[in-house]
Amino acid sequence: MSRALDRPPPDRLYGRARVHRLRARQAQLMEVLLPRLAVADPARPRDAFAVPVRAVWLEVGFGGGEHAQALAAAHPDVGLIACEVFENGIASLLSRLVPDGVDPASAPLPPNLRLWPEDAGHLLAALPDGALDRLFLMFPDPWPKARHAKRRFVHPARLPLLARVLRPGAEWRVASDDPTYQTWVAEVMAAQTLFDAPPPDATRPPGWPATRYEAKALAAGRAPLYWRFT
């Protein structure tokens, strides 16, 4: 077993804040739309949505947002909280929600989609027990260097927190195309008892929306794996 499994994770999750400066339209969307979509009180997640929801799902690190947008559209009776600190990714999602020429102050927004543009670890810590019915971690940063292994979201020390906020029977979906991360996930989940952890699928299961990261992986000849932990 890797010695990295024994290293505690940092207090915060790591991620890029920005790659390039936002365009004027993107900056406007960030300023106007984020307050409309932000989760105000993570201790009361069901109250965040504009419609009643039968369940609350959470995506950690939504990237460009295409997966989160597809989930929200396909499941209108589910409330989805999508977390991302990468401003360019957030702006990409907002640009698809409110196209050019539409006033962001009055544009209709998905009533069952809310955003958390801060560290997902802080949100998880604030959620009540059993608040989530599903958790998504799609193609996370693998942090391939051994000294950075403690930064990986899948970490032995984080599993009790995830088990607390997921109700019994809830599903945690993980996908990765990185061989180092794939080995790491297998090793971490084999050494724990909080989740049922069957072997991953080698092809994307039905009901899993595609992502741009998956498309890039397949185009580059990398083989993603898809886990469903309960």
Write the topology of this structure:
Layout (H helix, E strand, L loop, with lengths): L23 H14 L17 E6 L5 H9 L3 E6 L3 H11 L15 E4 L3 H7 L5 E7 L20 H7 E11 L2 H12 L21 H8 L5 E5 L1
Parallel strand pairs: 1-2, 1-4, 2-3, 4-5
Antiparallel strand pairs: 5-6
Helix pairs in contact: 1-3
Number of folding domains?
A: 1
Helix content: 25-40%
What summary fits the major beta sheet? 6 strands, mixed
Strand order of the largest sheet: 3-2-1-4-5-6
Count the beta strands.
Answer: 6
The CATH architecture can be named as: 3-Layer(aba) Sandwich
Mind telling me the CATH class?
Answer: Alpha Beta
- Helix count from the secondary structure assignment: 7
Principal-axes shape call: globular
Order of helices and strands: HEHEHEHEHEHHE
Beta percentage is: 15-25%
CATH homology superfamily name: Vaccinia Virus protein VP39
Distance between the termini: 23 Å
Q: Stretches where pLDDT falls below 50 for ≥5 residues?
A: none
Coarse structural class:
alpha/beta
- CATH third-tier fold name: Rossmann fold
Q: What number is the mean pLDDT?
A: 91
Rg computed from alpha carbons, rounded to a whole number of angstroms: 17 Å
